[in-house]
């Protein structure tokens, strides 16, 4: 376990149209069925202040936002989220299931925008100290397939308006993290039909539950 708290911290990551929303409830149910008390949350967001920052980040009123500003706002929302919600829940022995976390900053602001990863690492250390997710499920699929799926949804947010090359870099950034940290980051082949994706998720979550003492 990479955090020294009582609960477990699980994050779910992926590019556009990877199916996070479609699978988060499924993961929550797997954990609840195993008797875990689950706090479900998301980034950017998760607290009233974090959700206000999310609106600034995803909305279209600041389209020319500087890359550094974007990164700092992600971490400002994260600092609030950790202090108000994530750490207190973990301290009480609850399991936190979070839709995106710091890997997204490395993938989107680092690989996608081109910000240096050592600057992201400094913020990670400053805001999180030693706290890292215990398990991360990375829903991975070819960019074109993900964009085709996401295209069926509503009005695109500020990130969804990026070009294909941006999402290719994001995907490569995520895969690089998974290659570096195979013990924590489990790749799920999200290009498959939902049922097959959920079988893979089931396998990973069940193994993690066993490893965590059931
Ligand atoms: N961001 C960042 O830059 N830096 C950071 O540090 C953090 C975040 C924390 C908001 O994220 C943005 O914040 C995000 C990165 C940035 N930008 N983008 N893009 P978000 O997580 O809130 O938004 P999202 O990426 O759009 O995720 P989402 O809403 O959870 O959706 P999704 O993963 O794209 O998937 P979905 O809505 O579940 O599925 C898309 C469609 O595909 C839908 O019609 C499904 O029915 C369909 N689907 C899903 N799975 C399947 C399968 N297996 N087969 C066929 N069809 C499927």
Automatic annotation (TrEMBL):
ATP binds at residues 14-21. The keyword Transferase applies. It is an enzyme of class 2 (transferase). GO terms for cellular component: cytosol. GO terms for molecular function: ATP binding; dTMP kinase activity. Keywords: ATP-binding, Kinase, Nucleotide biosynthesis, Nucleotide-binding, Transferase. CDD domains: TMPK (cd01672). Residues 12-201 form the Thymidylate kinase-like domain. Coiled coil: none annotated. Its EC number is 2.7.4.9. It comes from the Bacteria. It catalyses: dTMP + ATP = dTDP + ADP. The keyword DNA damage does not apply. GO terms for biological process: dTDP biosynthetic process; dTTP biosynthetic process; dUDP biosynthetic process. Belongs to the thymidylate kinase family. Phosphorylation of dTMP to form dTDP in both de novo and salvage pathways of dTTP synthesis. This is Thymidylate kinase.
């Amino acid at each position: 376990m990479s955090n020294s708290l009582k609960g477990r911290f699980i994050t779910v990551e992926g590019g556009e149209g990877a199916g996070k929303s479609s699978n988060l409830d499924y993961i929550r149910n797997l954990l609840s069925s195993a008797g875990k008390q689950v706090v479900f949350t998301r980034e950017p967001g998760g607290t009233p202040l974090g959700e206000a920052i999310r609106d600034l980040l995803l909305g279209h009123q600041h389209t020319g936002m500087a890359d550094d500003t974007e990164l700092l706002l992600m971490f400002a929302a994260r600092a609030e989220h950790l202090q108000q919600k994530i750490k207190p829940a973990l301290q009480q022995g609850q399991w936190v299931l979070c839709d995106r976390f710091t890997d997204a900053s490395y993938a989107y602001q680092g690989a996608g925008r081109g910000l240096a990863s050592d600057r992201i690492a400094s913020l990670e250390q400053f805001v999180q100290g030693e706290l890292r997710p215990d398990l991360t499920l990375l829903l991975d699929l070819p960019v074109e397939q993900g964009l085709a799926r996401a295209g069926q949804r509503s009005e695109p947010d500020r990130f969804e308006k990026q070009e294909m090359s941006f999402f290719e870099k994001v995907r490569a950034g995520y895969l690089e993290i998974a290659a570096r940290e195979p013990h924590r980051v489990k790749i799920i082949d999200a290009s498959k039909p939902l049922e097959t994706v959920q079988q893979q998720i089931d396998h990973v979550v069940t193994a993690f539950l066993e490893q965590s003492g059931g």
